[in-house]
Amino acid sequence: MALRSSSSLPPLLFGLLSILLLYHTTTSLAIRVGIVIKPSPNLPVFREAPAFRNGDECGSEDQKHIHVAMTLDANYIRGTMAAVLSILQHSTCPENLSFYFLSAHSEANLFSAIKSTFPYLNFKIYRFDSNLVHGKISKSIRHALDQPLNYARIYLADIIPSNVGRVIYLDSDIVVVDDIAKLWDVDMEDKVVAAPEYCHANFTQYFTDAFWSDQEFSKTFHGRNPCYFNTGVMVMDVDKWRKGEYTQKVEEWMAVQKNKRIYHLGSLPPFLLVLAGNIKAVDHRWNQHGLGGDNFKGKCRNLHPGPISLLHWSGKGKPWLRLDSRKPCNVDHLWKPYDLYRSSKQSLEE
What we know:
transmembrane, Nucleotide-diphossugar_trans, Glyco_trans_8, 15% strand, transferase, alpha/beta, Spore Coat Polysaccharide Biosynthesis Protein SpsA, Chain A
């Protein structure tokens, strides 16, 4: 079930609709709910998620298998847990989902956290070697964008199993309110990446004057109609990515950036340089992005009108941080029903 946004609706109604949706689905479909012991002293405690059985024909070999990749970091794990719960809750066949988590930290503690929260989840954790981007990252406008794990999506095709031909990559600051199989089923034609693209955005702002004033650089987009797309939600044909050596193509632009500053953001601009104007466009409902506000102050933003299948808190402000500070934005109440975090206050009350 997809949501429909309207900037004229009061924030309380948004939150109420999400809570009712979660309550209805959980009470009717969940078969096991509980509280688990804290897996690591360095990680938050999470409630055990319900196990969803949403379709009678699920789990059979005849059903399509959907592969989802995400990064896994201690600082964002609360968002990851909420994202996974939302995907499972709204999937027709959650049993047919496989998750691939890329992590730069201790796999044991993170594995315990995921397994204890989602006992029935089909997942694997892969170590992302930060040395792959050592010396390749240039300082951007925000420290969080400079973390090595933010670049892991560039190497995704080389990390996940070679027999996986297609994967959905998702950031940790999202919730899905629709069946992710609809995104999986997109006809990619001959494209390497499918994602919502935004051709009305000011594309030139993603690159510096040094880029546009260089005759060789400015020729990069000749023959293409480059449009902005957000790399936090992508369907990737990883077979084509491997064969086309797209990892190397992105790295080449990162090397240029080290010598001559041609953009200000982190891993997004080199993706745009390689792929903008040559991706499969997906309905905008699959990335209602920018809910975290801008990259500097993270100011509140409203939803765009229209149907919504995925909410994305891209930008500086994260819903769990704003909720904890008791200074949430209206849209943060749409994230809260998926929050599995068990605070120390909750523990005392129980």
